[in-house]
Each structure stands twice: as structure tokens, then as C-alpha cells.
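call fold(seq) -> C-alpha cells
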Amino acid sequence: MAGAAGPTVRRRQLGAELRRKREEAGLSHDDVSESLNSMSQPKLSRIENGRGAIKADDVKRLLALYRCEDHELISALVDLAKRGAQRGMWWQSYSAHIGEPLGNLIALETSAASMRSYECFFIPGLLQTPAYAREIIRKLSIRREVNVEALVDVRMARQSALTRSEPLALWAVIHEAAIRSGVGGPNVMAEQLGRLADRASQPNINIQIMPIGAPAHHGMGGAFTILGFPQRQDLDVVLVEGTLSDLWVEDAADVELYAAKFDAIRADALGLDDSLALITEQRDKLT
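ret:
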């Protein structure tokens, strides 16, 4: 289940960066524990493997010991540690209904500056109406104990990322099949497409449609989401959702490949104005 100690993905990244800097400094676990009494070898090992939390002050001490002079990296890693220590996040009240994968996504969304998403079959969660989300969650859930209404509430609450004081910049490419589907019936789809058209008018949201008749394109490989962060581009991550488990792509070189893939998808999709026109046309057919 999602814990209050911070997202597993971020812990892994923080640990990997600290391990990299230690190795660059030519220090072993024993060297570190001898220099810092508060950092035992087992504790350091847990931190570097993403299995243990670490305080911001300990991050500073480690990086000072490693003679790290990259002030931007220091700031980014300290920020990751601080976010990992936060308590009382809004989604904790839904902890009984949120597994670790969704907990990771929500926690990352709260600190992300941008999201680039390609969806093949349905409208992205941050753009869904309650009625549409209810149908999607009900149909895609394979576990009987899922509380659909609780997950709808969580999905709607997540959308505040788009309207906060420094809103998430969302660029979504959606396959045309998604806007022509019959999810929930004509009324639900008409409302959903109206919401999509409305969101497209917000300055921090761009929506493109991949036409059904498009030639072979990179989106045929499946849906994915890239979360971008203000600290450093090499801390960006990619989410590839699966039925039973999600894949988080964290290696910077691999994330870059997905970024190039998204740019290619965006280039093959309809332009922003043509996409909005298609969404509006389909909405009008249902009303």
C-alpha cells in the first residue's frame, strides 16, 4: 500500500544518485560509516537500494563527504528527501483503496512540473469526468474488492494538479478511437468530450488527437506517460501501466528515448486546432 514515507520511485532515484556519487568519490560503505557515525553500513545500503528513507540533513552530509560540488544536484536531492518525509498528504485518507503503483503516481504528480501522455483507448485520468471515470474504473478493475467510488474521488482530487498555483503542464495525445468510443453511453461521452474541449482552452493544457487513419506511428507501441520535474531533467520518469503491475522507467537515457518517441507521436497527430475541432464535432453528434 502507499505509505506516507514517500514514493518508492523517488526513493530508488535518490538512492541511486547517492550511490553514484559515493562510487565517484571512491568510497566504500565502510568508509562512509567510519566518517559519519549516524550512517551505518546497513542503513546506507538500504538507502542506496531505495528501501529506506533518509533525512535532508543526512543527504547534505553524504554529499559533502563525497565532495559533490554540483549545487543543482545537491538542491534536487535534498528536495527529494524533504518530499519523502512529508506526512498528511491528502490521499492518505484513501490508503485502504490505493495500492503502491497509484500512490507512486499521485505523489509524483504533486511535485511534477509537466506531464506528457499518450493514450490509445481512453481519455487520460486527469481529464476525465466523474461519470466517465466511474465506467473506466469499473470495467478495468480485475479485483472484486475495488471501491469504485473511492477511486473516482481520488481521480477527481488528482485533477487539482492542473489548477494549482503553479499548475502541471499537460500535453496529451489521445487516439481518435477514445473519443469515438461509447463509454457509459451517449450522455456520458458527450459530457466527457465537453470537458475535454473545455480543458483544451486552458493555457497549461495541450490536447492532440491521433487520427484513426494515421500511418504507422510510434504510438502503436502502447500508452505511456512522462513526468517531468523542475529540479533536473535527468530525474524525469516514465510510467508504462500494465494490468497487474506498472513499469517505471527511471534511467535517464531510456527516459530520453521515450521523450523522443513522444515528440514523434505529437508530430504525427492532428494539430491543436484540428484536434479541438474533431473533439467538438464528435461531442455535437452526441447531443
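Residues 4 and 87 are 6 Å apart (CA to CA).
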